[in-house]
Amino acid sequence: MLNIYKRFWQVNWAEQWQYRANLVMYLAYWMVMPIVYLAVWTTIAREQGSVNGLTANDFAAYYLTLLPVDIITSSIVIHVLAYKIQEGSISNELMQPVHPVLTNTLTNNVAFKALNLLVFVPLWLVLVLLFQPHFTYTWQSALLALPALAIGFFTRFLLDSCVTLVAFWTTRVWSIQQFNDAIGILLNGAFVPLALMPAWVQTIAQVLPYQLGASFPTLLLLNKLTPEQIALNYALGIFWVLALLGLFQFMWKRAIKQYSAVGA
Amino acid sequence: MHINRVLSALLKINIQQELAYRTDTLINILTSAMWLGWELIGLSIIFSNTNSIGGWRAGDIIALLGVFRLVNTFMMMVVWPNTEKFNRGIREGSLDYTFLQPIDSQFMVSFSRIVIWNVWNLIIGVALIVAGLSMTSSTTSFAGVATFLLLTFSGGVVIYSLWVVLIALTFWFTKFDNNVTLMQALMDAGRYPATIYPTWLRVIITFIVPVALATTVPLQALRGELAWWQIALALLVSLLAFCVSRLVWKAGIKRYSGASS
What predicted TM-score, i.e. pTM, was given to this entire model? Predict the structure, then answer.
């Protein structure tokens, strides 16, 4: 099994290098909105001294931590999988004796991310120099955050995969994905630290899987969570990974049963 | 007039194309309504924590969001779809047919594809501007509104000119098919007043990808923050930008040779 992943990794890593010229552009896309939100909230914090106890520096540290976290946990499943389903080219992969999504698509995602991070790190260092936030990382928080990042990645990957599988039934999968994205940005802490949301929204955001891919690892890295909160989020994380994996397997079985390629 | 007749024919074709996908149109409108809701929820969260951002109150920001939506809709309705068509034309050689037509090639490359359903977004944009302005207590004069409209238009011209230059560069560098990605990425920064951004970002969106010229600047004029010479300068810049883009386009098409030629 490990060999299969190794092979898929070699193929996908080589494939991602083809698009290296697009990387900087792609990252620019990725970084503009967080920097805009960062500017909005630091401006407000500076005018008032603080927002709900958060200073300008807190916001800078938050968003500049969120950026790499978001890249690490992000998924591009729908972009690589939806068109294969719609055009029928997934048929080739269905012939292989391995699960196409959990091998090929998964390694493709990781390869994309790895190459992105290579280009991202220097850009991030420039941003850190420009904003000069005071980070409150410790090596304990970094160690604790590693599994959280893995959980964050798998929740996002599996949730996006479930959304993408809808493509087996309808061509409107992109609208569903946009809807999912909109809820995600609002409730995962990318738009604003969840602490600034009304209490009832915070409760909803806490239970839903979205925050596991952004807010939780970020706050964990910054040492802003109590041990109880960390435990709760880990428990929720494990629950969501298993639940989404179950949902994904259920949808996958149904999907390939009724799948027939274009022209069949 | 020649151009007017062509434009109305193009509109007709594009409306027919839109009508062929009625469900898509409906879903697009619903999705855009959802994003509007998203933006308003976002603003309500911001303004539940503060009264103003860098001196801009809720009404100002909503009006700015309206102007941003106008500019962004222009991009989604005309600029991005035509970029896609242009890049495909370069790659596959179908651009040849555009040059064979007895009409200005820049006009055809810019306006042959118009995504009609976006008219809905234009309406929303205007509604947001009106709503935002009526929320701010300051009375707006007729001259103020006229300057505002003129500056929005001239800002749009600057962005359009930059776009023409970017796609014309493809004539020199054929592989430059992500010519507008950076521009697309930076558009989003137009949602909030450029004055709150750190200097480097403000410089980028004012001078390099001048989104701010079409979003923040017109509203600043409406808020009475600009001197007459600044307004004149903005207009002059847009005129210059248009002339430069025209020259670059003319020089570019001389270099064009069809794919595989």
Answer: 0.87
